Amino acid sequence: MAKDVISKSTERDHPPLLVNEPSHLGKRRCRRTVQLLVLATFLGFWLRIIPFKWPSLSLRQGTVLPVDHVPDIGLPESLMRTWAQYAPYIPVAKYVPPPPMCTISQVHVLQRHGTRWPTSNAAAKCKSAVDKLKRVKDYEEDYLVFLKNFTWDLGENDLLPLGARQSFDAGVAAFDRYAHIVSNDNLPFVRAASSTRVVDSATNWTAGFNVASHNTIKASVDLILPESGNLTLDDNMCPNAGDGDAESERWLAIYAPPITRRLNLAAPGANLSNKDTYNLMSLCAFHSQATMTPSPFCGLFTPEEFRGFEYFGDVDKFYDNGHGGNLGRVRGVGYVNELLARLTGKPVRDNTQTNRTLDASPETFPLDRTLYADFSHDNTMVSIYSALGLFRQYLLPGQKLNPGDPSSLRTWILSNMVPFGGRMVVERLKCTRAAALPAAFIRILVNDAVQPLKFCGGVRGLCELHAFVESQWYSRHDGGGDFERCFD
Ligand SMILES: *[C@@H]1O[C@H](CO)[C@@H](O)[C@H](O)[C@H]1NC(C)=O
Ligand SMILES: *[C@@H]1O[C@H](CO)[C@@H](O)[C@H](O)[C@H]1NC(C)=O
Ligand SMILES: *[C@@H]1O[C@H](CO)[C@@H](O)[C@H](O)[C@H]1NC(C)=O
Ligand SMILES: *[C@@H]1O[C@H](CO)[C@@H](O)[C@H](O)[C@H]1NC(C)=O
Ligand SMILES: *[C@@H]1O[C@H](CO)[C@@H](O)[C@H](O)[C@H]1NC(C)=O
């Protein structure tokens, strides 16, 4: 029925056109091209001034990725990517192993829980918008008629089967890539924040990891960190942190009113607000991923309208946990300090969110492992990316997203950063350069896209480990006073 609604509605003068539109693809391609050009210019610059030469075109082809990349929901990938933080996991690039003169010596995975139901809070808002539409007796447009029969049967908070599957697949992919650095004497060390969906994602990940090893490896979740206490895998330890509401509402007031007007004409008396419109759009994402078919709610909107929805999420998190936030990145400092400890094999030095008791004990914070996996939430991961210096918006005025005007030059795109099941992987490498001793390097992949690491002088995404550690001044200084500002 859902597919029906969508195709029928394409004949009318309103929304649905759930196909890859050439103009949309064109814009994306244009954006990619600009990004590549900038990257190329940047790399060209560094390649000229660095004191040694990397062998040309040394990248090997990506190894196996045994699982489907794009979940089969019956909707175009381009549409699912406009769901911002509610997008399913879709890799941003094809995984490319490090150059041949490098070997991977240690890996750190930080992963968001997989696709879930809406949170209780969001579900209540979605249901209220649906109820407004359901109270209307006669719809003016066919694309609303399904509501007559629609009964609210959505869950709340918990992981969906798609989220469990994608977490499992991530464990499989991690084993396929990194099997050579683990053994039963050197198991992955796995931690999860205590929300059920996060713990379920972690256990599904370990299940996938073990199955991929034909159960020769028996990884399990080592530590569940209560979200009520000190922890680095949640962002709730900074009471004074602001939010992105002012900025995202500014954008809502621009993109949503024409949609709200159209829906209120189609459903006379519904009296939907712009926020209702936002919530109904989010239902397209949740409902489709729950049923694994295109939700009829998707048929209420055009792909262009979903691009407005996407930017709402981008702006909201940029000005909350991101670079634009008052006390955004400080909420990522604790994790970065743990990462630095693991990368350098030295005890954690942190006076922010870490649990000092746990981090001081080799039982609960070992430093001798080669693979670490931590499971968390989107907001926390955005803070961590920002604390690290990833996704700085060098090409935008003031390095800020303009809440009134989406720029095609922005790389701050949540579906590329923290979709459900989104992940950051830090690889520590041992690289041999011509006429030099082997040295430790790192590279960082976000959803398989190698990050340029401009902040530590990255060359083809590689930084020397000591330069990376140097670059993390903000975290090594507990946020340079920002953590105190969380409280006073
Ligand atoms: C509503 O549900 C009934 C029973 O399942 C079905 O016969 C009917 O066609 C549905 N109506 C619409 C508009 O989908
Ligand atoms: C995977 O997650 C689901 C929740 O969606 C949970 O019920 C199940 O126990 C998990 N499976 C494993 C192997 O942990
Ligand atoms: C730190 O961890 C210990 C051990 O799990 C726990 O008992 C304690 O409550 C935690 N402290 C805080 C402040 O979270
Ligand atoms: C429509 O909703 C707004 C709040 O969004 C409310 O202030 C107004 O009274 C409602 N109008 C009607 C006719 O129900
Ligand atoms: C929890 O964090 C606070 C703030 O940094 C700190 O004062 C306290 O000592 C920490 N407690 C533990 C057990 O680490």
Automatic annotation (TrEMBL):
Signal peptide: none
Compositional bias segments (type: Basic and acidic residues): 1-15
Cell location: Secreted
GO molecular function: acid phosphatase activity; inositol hexakisphosphate 3-phosphatase activity
Pfam families given in the database record: His_Phos_2
Catalytic activity, as annotated: 1D-myo-inositol 1,2-bisphosphate + H2O = 1D-myo-inositol 2-phosphate + phosphate; 1D-myo-inositol 1,2,4,5,6-pentakisphosphate + H2O = 1D-myo-inositol 1,2,5,6-tetrakisphosphate + phosphate; 1D-myo-inositol 1,2,6-trisphosphate + H2O = 1D-myo-inositol 1,2-bisphosphate + phosphate; 1D-myo-inositol hexakisphosphate + H2O = 1D-myo-inositol 1,2,4,5,6-pentakisphosphate + phosphate
Active site: H113 (nucleophile), D378 (proton donor)
CDD domains: HP_HAP_like
Record keyword Glycoprotein present: yes
Domain of life: Eukaryota
Keyword Glycoprotein applies: yes
Region feature Disordered, mapped onto this chain: 1-22
Transmembrane segments: 36-54
Main localization (coarse): secreted
Disulfide-bonded cysteines: C102-C431, C284-C298, C456-C463
The name this protein goes by in its record: Phytase A
Organism: Lactarius akahatsu
